[in-house]
Amino acid sequence: MSGQTKESLQALLARRKPGHALEAPFYTDQDIFDADMKYIFGQHWIYVGVEPDIAEPGDAMVVNIGKSSVIITRDDDGEVRAFHNVCRHRGARMVPEGKTMIGNIVCPYHSWTYGLDGDLKFAEHMGEDFDPKCRGLKKVAIRSIAGLIFVCLAEEPPEDIEDMARIMEEYLAPHDVRNTRVAFESDLIEMGNWKLTMENNRECYHCGANHPELTIPLFAYGFGYAPGTLDDEGQRDADRYGELAVACHARWEGEGLPSREVEHLDDRITGFRTERLPIDRSGESQTLDTKAACRIPLGGLKDKSVGGLSFWTQPNSWHHFMGDHIVTFTVLPIDAGHTLVRTKWLVHKDAVEGVDYDLQHLTEVWQATNQQDADLVEISQQGADDPSFEPGPYSPYTEGLVEKFSAWYIGRMKAALA
């Protein structure tokens, strides 16, 4: 980053008005996007997938984070490892993006061969003085939290992920992620900046008008509303949610299911939030009929009505854990105006499609919601590109968590440039 670019970005960061949307360059400028990739995605813990993606020894998954490509493997001892997808010979990309099964990591250029532990095992024609011990794959920091995989590209990753792990492992344990499998996965490219994708996720102000499927199981009023603005029916729904949340939290906590809100979205380097939320009607799952989509429950859960455990992480994920299935979301920037949203639906590892679950029933709520959100992100990007764009105020009642995302982002960028 040039000195002039750095000064320009620092000026934008300094004049950001709390409680308001970010200025247009944060969504449109290529230099700021490059800074995001360096200081946000290059320095923080990034959610990339689940252990069932690499369930068996020899399974591998490649995830691209900007210009960086990361190989995630499970070695013969069952340990999960991560390496830069760059050959130590002349730098060739070795494994294509996606999932595969490999006995070794073999560079297709000159056949340098690495074990699943990253050590160089074979390099032909290199001479007697060549020491293979110095040419193993470069490691990437990796941390599995109850089966959710995070990586960090920084040489010194933030240590506070251990605080998040200590709290979240208790919340996630009942859903037993490691004993699930990925029933379906979708990649959706949104026509907008990654921050617009995250901001859209952090509020439900838009839900009532845009998410007819999601608002069947999900209470939109559970994320806030302005007092005195609801009609009688809306106020009854909001009151019903409040009463249900109190009753459900007491019942779930009594059953040993952590449910209370824990919120650290903007006061830690590794920001996160969690809370177990009631599901409407039958209360079982985020489906169109609110009933469980999969016949086999997760973990040792016996009560079908355990709501939906919500888990958000900065800068790039959100998740929903229910009694019968899990939905996880990964956000990976492509360029200033395009973002990949990768969604995975997980069911019990023994569940059989067509016998224990119907794939359409399992996925239809979030398939529809993802596309609706993508459409909203696209028109938001179009607005940010318009010369007349001016940051507007956030709702103090329904967009407080958007403000926390923006405040976290501004704070982390300021710290990086200080």
From TrEMBL:
Pfam families the UniProt entry points to: Rieske, Ring_hydroxyl_A
UniProt entry keywords in alphabetical sequence: 2Fe-2S, Iron, Iron-sulfur, Metal-binding, Oxidoreductase
Cofactor(s) in the UniProt record: Fe cation
Keyword Coiled coil belongs to the record: no
InterPro entries: Rieske_2Fe-2S (IPR017941), Rieske_2Fe-2S_sf (IPR036922), Ring_hydroxy_dOase_asu_C_dom (IPR015879), Rng_hydr_dOase-A (IPR001663)
PROSITE patterns referenced in this protein's UniProt entry, alphabetically: RIESKE (PS51296)
Residues annotated as domain Rieske: 47-151
SUPFAM superfamilies registered for this protein in UniProt: Bet v1-like (SSF55961), ISP domain (SSF50022)
Metal-binding is among the record's keywords: yes
Family matches, as PANTHER family: CHOLINE MONOOXYGENASE, CHLOROPLASTIC
Protein name: Rieske 2Fe-2S domain-containing protein
Organism lineage string: Bacteria, Pseudomonadati, Pseudomonadota, Alphaproteobacteria, Acetobacterales
